[in-house]
Amino acid sequence: MPPSHTETAPVLGGSRWNTFPEASTMTAREFFTGALPLLQGIIDDNALTSADGEVLQAQIRATLGLGTRETSLPLAVGPDSATAAREVGAQAEAIGRVIASWATTALDRLLTEPIPFPAGPLVVRSHCYGHLLTPPAADLLRGRRGGPVTMQLYNEWLHQMVLLRDALLPFTNWQDVPLLVTPSGLRHTEAARDRFLTELLVRQIRHTSIVDFARHVVTGTSGPDGYGFDADGGTALPAVIDAPPLTAPQHLLTWRPDPAVGETATYVAELDDYYAAPRTLIEDLPPAAPVEGPLPFRIVIGPVADGTRTAHIAVAHEGTTACVDLGQALRGHRFAHRHRHRPTTGNATAGDTRTADVWAALRAPGLVWTEGGDVTLDATGQDDTVVLALLGRLYPENVVLRPAGHRAEPVTAGGNGPSRLVIDLPDHDITDR
Q: 292 by DSSP, 3-state: which?
């Protein structure tokens, strides 16, 4: 009789800290569980107690936190930071707190319910990755009962947790993302992570760089620059696809499971350079009667060609359809300013002198802009996707998203000059850009 799978499967112990196959997908929680043998090896080699566990719990909180001496992500975030940095920083703090809480629970459990090592005590070689230890953790792992084996095991576990946190930074629904995992854990993300963090820390990170890193995390491969991607089993697109434009992140992605997706492709905008697009002055548009009720719409996905695909939003009204490139719509959302409800003495308009019709703007050729002062478009009765289509039709400079409840206030956001396109939307709780 041939040997069973369980008889030939690799077992834990020695240099093997996991039984991951050559390539598989796991959620964050599944990967964390798969890395628990490293923690067990630390406990076993160092004969740790519950008091020692508290030292390691404090260490992982310090490593995954922002602004600590031991932080693994020296990202300084403040009110004047770029929007992308603030969004990624908030992600890092939120994800780090959850991983640290998992570690706290795991350490308590492993002290009383140890993982067995059929192949003998765990001995793993792991290089130092520069993760700074707290003084109590350094004392515990290097001195007293600690030693080279304990330090190596902890180096590996801590590094894998940092890689896990960072791999999840692009995604709003990070606990649902299918991470590509190999026998080396998440080390395959290291080169892409280094590029991503370098750009995040030294300049204003591009949306295409966030997408590229997210694609490496899920597929292990790069691809053309784009605003999202398909991968086996789902699609990663900007979060505003599934959230109100006023409150949705401007730079993060949401993973959308879809068993029908079976190939990897990058979503690209129809126009790489929107500056070259033809423009239409909003004051030159023909008058149009206001639309009563929400406009029907659908998102149309194009075929894959050379690893890329496009998509558009089709909005219909009285037998006519306006098609807006989804890539340009998402670009418009990233660039749009959000009205700030605060007193101002500078670039503010005490009232809107002109209005324009949403449908007239949607069906206009090229990108719509204005030179004659602020213009308001009332989209309070429209679906979020129609608002997104409108953002794709407006030239993406000096566009302001404003809650309808703030109509009586001066417009306190926008770029240079008074010629702004202000979109009135249903009220939502919003934060400043």
A: coil
Q: Answer for the pair 335, 397: CB distance below 8 angstroms, yes or no.
A: yes
Residue 123 has pLDDT above 90, yes or no: yes
Residue showing tokens 């570690």 = 103
- Tell me the C-alpha distance between 285 and 360, whole Å: 7
Residue 270 tokens, joined: 């129809």
Distance CA 173, CA 138 (A): 34
| pLDDT, tens digit, 9 for 90 and up, residues 348-360 | 454 546 888 999 9
Q: Report the DSSP beta bridge partners of residue 236.
A: 229, 255
In sequence order, what are the beta bridge partners of 402?
424
Q: What span, in angstroms and rounded, lies between the C-alpha atoms of 96 and 410?
A: 39
DSSP output for 264-296: -EEE--S-S-GGGS-EEEGGGSPP-PPPPSPPP
- Distance separating alpha carbons of residues 11 and 183, to the nearest angstrom: 13
Residue 382 · residue 294 · CB < 8 Å:
yes
Helix, coil or strand: residue 107: helix
**What was the pLDDT predicted at 412?**
63
- Going from N- to C-terminal start, the domains of the chain cover 12-265, 274-425
Q: How far apart are the C-alpha atoms of 395 and 329, rounded to whole Å?
A: 10
Rounded to whole angstroms, the maximal C-alpha distance in the chain is: 86
Residue given tokens 């995992």 in the structure block: 181
Burial of 419 (0-12, 13-18, 19+ CB in 10 A): middle
pTM above 0.90, yes or no: yes
pLDDT digits (tens, 9 = 90+) for 196-217: 999 999 989 999 999 999 999 9
Kindly state the helix (H) or strand (E) to which residue 369 belongs, with its residue range.
strand 367-369
Identify the helix (H) or strand (E) that includes residue 215: helix 207-219
| Amino acid (1-letter code) at residue 262 | G
* The pair of three-digit structure tokens given for residue 16, joined into one six-digit string: 């093997």
Task: Map residue 289 onto helix, strand or coil.
Answer: coil
Q: Which has more pLDDT, 85 or 5?
A: 85
Which H or E element spans position 38?
A: helix 36-46
Asked if 171 and 249 touch (Cβ cutoff 8 Å), the reply is no
Go through 270-281 and write b for each residue having 16 or more CB atoms within 10 A of its CB, e for each that does not: eeeebeeeeebe
Residue 360's Cβ-count burial label (10 Å; 0-12, 13-18, 19+) is: buried
